[in-house]
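Budget justification aside, the reviewers requested a transparent look at the raw inputs and outputs of the sequence design task funded under Objective 1. We therefore reproduce one unedited record. The lines immediately below are the structure tokens for a 98-residue chain.
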């Protein structure tokens, strides 16, 4: 029996092909529809929700609002936005417990 590199014939080539096929079955299809794709989708959804609750998207939304409704107004830096937002929350503590 003659073996050529990558032919999959023989003991080592065949077992490597079987291992590779088994690994692909465990991971699932590459289009993200397998178990790994569902886990990734779930993790992304949880991270998006946590980011939304903590206000991670607020600056982006504020910039979009300024561009849409006040096109001539200067857009503050993200640092300035958060500084002003926290200062306003300290001046006007309506939605805080303490």
């Amino acid at each position: 029996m003659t073996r050529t590199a990558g032919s999959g014939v023989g003991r080592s080539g065949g077992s490597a092909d079987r291992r590779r096929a088994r690994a692909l079955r465990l991971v699932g299809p590459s289009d993200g529809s397998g178990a790994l794709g569902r886990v990734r989708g779930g993790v992304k959804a949880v991270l998006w929700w946590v980011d939304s609750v903590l206000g991670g998207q607020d600056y982006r939304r504020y910039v979009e609002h300024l561009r849409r409704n006040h096109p001539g107004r200067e857009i503050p830096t993200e640092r300035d936005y958060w500084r002003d937002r926290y200062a306003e929350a300290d001046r006007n503590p309506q939605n805080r417990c303490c």
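The helical segments are 11-27, 35-53, 58-69, 78-91. The two ends are 81 Å apart (CA to CA). Computational costs for records of this kind are itemized in the attached budget.
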